[in-house]
Amino acid sequence: MKCTIKVPAKINLSLDVVGKREDGYHLLETVMQSIDLYDIIKVSLIDLPYSKSGNIQIIADNPTFPCDSRNTCHRAAEQFIKAWQSAKKEGLIDENNQSVTNEKYNSISLETKTILIHITKNIPQAAGLAGGSADAAAVLTALNHLCGLPFTDGSLARFGSKVGADVPFCLTGGTVLCKGIGEILEPLPPLKCVPVVLVKPNFGVSTPWVFERLNINQLGKRPNTPGVVDAILEQNITELFDKTANVLESITLPAFPVLSRIKDTLLELGAVGALMSGSGPSVFGIFQTDEQAVAAVAKIKKISEFNSYTILKTDTVQNGPIRIDDVI
Ligand code: C5P
Known about the structure:
It contains eleven helices and eleven strands. With about 325 residues, the chain is of the alpha+beta class. Strands 1, 2, 3, 4, 5, 6 and 11 form a seven-stranded mixed beta sheet that branches. The two termini are about 15 Å apart.
């Protein structure tokens, strides 16, 4: 039994920090947007005897990729197994505390299976594009499908938020205002398909490193989040960039000055606006037309300072994880 999922990266169209929890997590108001840059995650349930390394096995096409419990796919599968085991003990219950009967779920014994996860990475890592959270969302979606859809979307989001703050968004995708630490989702009207040029430098930035340095009383330029939401309602990208900001730029940009040069370059090449995504270091620019975006990519690739960077033209999309077994 196998299920193959393609799952998109995200950019942050705005990012504000509005408080801090006692456990150190920051309370956010951020508009997240899916883009058509996909990881492919294949999950198979196979009848293999339980091995010493446990019943979750990960194979990645990138040999430097950690395949143990540091991997978000591993942690997502662990969360799913835990929820599965308690559902088997206590009965399957839906969001309204009603018990659920599900033939496929009843006929599967996950305990005797090995979960084999094959990862094809296209989303750069430690890039501010939620690659790890996207992969975790794909694993939860695939396992739920393979096991007869025992869990609701809300339950999957709950398991997912234990793996990464962006997993609930990645399970949904689209254009969403995310609050709390990322677990409160307010879907927005879809931002029409717009061309996005993404520039990911040849280094990563650690999200905890950025948040640790953030002083919530000195955030620098903050977005006007209701203004950003209105601009999306009006599909007005110029207005969006008038109102937006990413407060994490105040930490990442001074530490890596090349990021400001990337933003300036995108603007010089005609981007309506440019912003860092998440905690960085990816920077994106939104363009009026495909032609302008394609031309900008070609020009940026020729700049020697950026020639080892990942430079891509993508588009905004309105989907989260998609099953693709039928087409591959
Ligand atoms: O949950 P995730 O793995 O995405 O976050 C990595 C780290 O970033 C957290 O351990 C925390 O230090 C920081 N973080 C935060 N507030 C958030 C999201 C992440 O402080 N809302």
